[in-house]
Design brief:
The chain is mainly α. Helices cover 73% and strands 4% of the residues. Among the domains are: 225 residues, no CATH class; 182 residues, Orthogonal Bundle (Helix Hairpins), CATH 1.10.287. Strand 2 and strand 3 form a beta hairpin. It is a multi-pass membrane protein.
Length: 675
């Protein structure tokens, strides 16, 4: 037998009518996974536009800047304008009933406070707007999963729309903040200028406070103390003067009483003098008569011519002259003195009794003055006591003033030091505010919308190297691997793992294995060809490397055929088919074709690294969606090495099975009876 001779294993499928049909079914059966499944899940997301979803707008609206605002209507219009999902706006009762009976896969509700929450960023109670989603597990898990994606898309869309408006308001606020910062910078600069002036004023204040303390408060305190001492001495002097004034007033009262008594006596004296003068006037008249008689006698004597008459007449004239001059005559001194005495007595009496007289008027005025002096000194004494109290208070106040001016000097010094720091701080503040104002972004009306859109949605989907593949394209490596392994499994439902004729021949063990494996491999390649053509031209799969994909599928099919061949050869067809199905199930959940192994239980994570389907999925991904310039990563070459090694190990197991089948055992000599 030629080493590559396929024997008669395939020839029996070309005789009659059913065998060719069976062979065709085996070749096309992997298309259930590799074709039908890929086609069925080609683009389920793209079909969301046909997915009926209930939309309930319960929003009652709100006010924004004094104007009515209804975010619910805007969101409803936006989602209705989108062709990605078939939204049907309805009332809450219909939505609840439709989700329950499957009319709608799920429902979205915009609650009553949706608008209030949307504009709450400018209130004292900011809170996010919510969209209520209602699902029904009875409508299907995948429908619910797609519904979650739709809800996420709606929320993202609403976030972008409302966020842009809120952000626009914030940007307007930034413009306002910028203007306020400019004004604050100007104010800070004015504050700095003011602190410079205040610092200069504080220097003068300090000097003035020191001068006030040294030249004003201290001398004033000393003077106040001296004034207090002087006021005390003055009070004592006034007290003594007041006592003297009281004594003077009492003496003047006694003087007035004595004057009154003296006036009465003077009046009596004046009356007595007047009486004496009256008597003297009578005597003077008699004397004048006598003198006249004497002069008559003298004249008579001279006229008589009598001797001695002239002498006698001379003597008589002398006596008359003497009476005239020394007696009570008009020329006598006694009369003159009596007249003076009468005038003096009368004057004394008038001075002592007439209130208009100088003496008595003076005494009265002196008495009144003494009384007023005493009264004034008493008043002055009271004032001096108040002056003493006031001067002591003044002295205490000036002492406190000295302490206060000393504190004022210290405070002025501290104020100056503080103003120096304030000047430095205000200057730095003005500089920082000015620099900060320059850094505050300003958004003009022509660009604010773009900035608001960018800030509200800072991240957008963008894949520069790869484009997002369709769902079916992403699952194609998994379904192809599954289809090829299933193809190997069903192939040995018709093919015999080991031909009895080959076992009975003298051919080597390897040749016995190849006699069955080569026909199976050719069937596998036929399955690959059919699957590749359907994927490429019927479904529309556009792999990055067409030839590479086809060759890779051939290699994977060869490996999977070797695995199923070895299992069926070693365990027999009945047990082998069951084990192949079990192995296919284990590979299915451990390959990482659907979910990353890190998200699965520990058992699947361990099996993942020894799962042949893990490497087939990686290789197919490289060919379908990998880089177009053949800059493939290590997983592709690694996959070839693993499936090559598995192929060789599987053939080794098949060779061992062929060797074992050639041994004659006891049970072959004495087979069990079949009932």
């Amino acid at each position: 037998m030629s080493f590559l001779h396929i024997g008669s294993e395939l020839q029996r499928f070309f005789r009659g009518k059913l065998p060719p049909i069976g062979l065709a079914v085996i070749i096309l059966l992997p298309l259930i996974f590799g074709g039908l499944f890929v086609w069925s899940y080609w683009d389920p997301v793209g079909g969301l536009s046909r997915l009926p979803v209930a939309l309930v707008n319960s929003d009652r609206g709100a006010e924004k800047d004094g104007q009515p605002f209804n975010a619910g209507e805007q969101v409803a219009e936006k989602v209705h304008s989108s062709d990605r999902v078939h939204f049907i706006q309805t009332d809450p009762e219909d939505a609840r009933r439709g989700v329950a009976d499957g009319t709608y896969y799920f429902a979205l509700e915009l609650p009553e406070d949706f608008s209030e929450a949307a504009v709450s960023a400018g209130t004292d109670y900011p809170h996010p707007a919510t969209i209520n989603a209602v699902f029904n597990n009875a409508n299907g898990f995948l429908g619910q999963m797609l519904g979650n994606q739709v809800a996420t898309l709606v929320v993202d869309s609403v976030d972008a729309t409302l966020g842009e408006k809120v952000t626009d308001t914030l940007l307007v606020g930034f413009n306002t903040i910028g203007g306020g910062m400019d004004k604050a910078g100007q104010g800070a600069q004015q504050l700095n200028d003011g602190t410079v002036t205040a610092r200069e004023g504080s220097e003068k204040l300090k000097d003035g406070a020191q001068k006030l303390h040294d030249d004003g408060a201290v001398p004033l305190n000393d003077g106040a103390k001296k004034l207090a001492d002087g006021a005390q001495a003055l009070d004592k002097g006034i007290a003594q003067a007041s006592k003297g004034a009281d004594q003077l007033s009492q003496g003047m009262a006694s003087l007035r009483e004595g004057t009154q008594a003296l006036g009465n006596g003077a009046q009596q004296v004046s009356g007595g003098v007047d009486s004496i003068v009256g008597l003297s006037d009578g005597v003077a008249q008699q004397q004048e008569q006598l003198i006249g008689q004497l002069l008559t006698i003298s004249t008579s004597l001279r006229a008589s011519g009598l001797p001695g008459a002239a002498d006698l007449a001379q003597q008589t004239d002398g006596v008359a002259e003497q009476l005239r001059t020394s007696g009570l005559g008009p020329d006598s001194s006694i009369v003159s003195q009596l007249n003076q005495l009468r005038a003096g007595a009368r004057e004394i009496s008038r001075q002592l009794q007439d209130p208009n007289a100088e003496y008595l008027g003076g005494v009265e005025r002196a008495v009144d003055g003494a009384e007023r002096l005493a009264t004034g000194l008493h008043t002055l004494k009271d004032g001096s006591q108040q002056l003493v109290v006031g001067t002591h208070t003044l002295s205490d106040g000036t002492s406190k003033l000295v302490g206060a001016t000393d504190q004022l000097t210290v405070g002025a010094t501290q104020l100056r030091d503080g103003l120096v720091k304030l000047d430095e701080g205000s200057g730095e503040l003005a500089l920082k505010i000015t620099d900060g104002a320059k850094k505050v972004p300003r958004y003009g009306d022509d660009v604010r919308g773009d900035y608001a859109s960018t800030i509200a949605t800072p991240v957008k989907e963008g894949i520069p190297a790869d484009s997002m593949t369709l769902f079916g394209v992403g699952l194609a490596p998994f379904f192809i691997s599954l289809g090829l392994f299933m193809g190997g499994t069903v192939s040995f439902m018709l093919l015999r793992p080991l031909q009895r004729r080959a076992l009975d021949s003298r051919a080597g063990h390897l040749r016995v294995v190849v006699a069955t494996y080569l026909p199976a491999m050719l069937i596998g390649w036929a399955q690959v060809t059919a699957m590749f053509l359907v994927l490429r031209y019927a479904i529309g799969l556009d792999p990055q490397h067409e030839i590479g994909l086809y060759v890779t599928m051939l290699g994977i099919s060869s490996c999977f055929m070797a695995i199923t061949h070895s299992i069926n050869s070693f365990f027999g067809a009945t047990i082998g088919r069951v084990l192949c199905l079990i192995l296919m199930a284990i590979q299915l959940v451990s390959s990482g074709g659907l979910y990353p192994p890190e998200t699965q239980p520990k058992f699947q994570q361990v099996v993942h690294y020894i799962d042949p389907m893990t490497y087939s999925v990686n290789m197919l991904r490289q060919m379908i969606v990998g880089p177009s310039d053949w800059a493939l990563d290590h997983r592709y070459l690694h996959g070839w090495m693993v499936i090559g090694m598995i192929l060789m190990v599987s053939l080794g197991v098949s060779i061992f099975a062929a060797w074992r089948h050639r041994l004659i055992r006891v049970k072959d000599l004495h087979p069990e009876l079949k009932v």
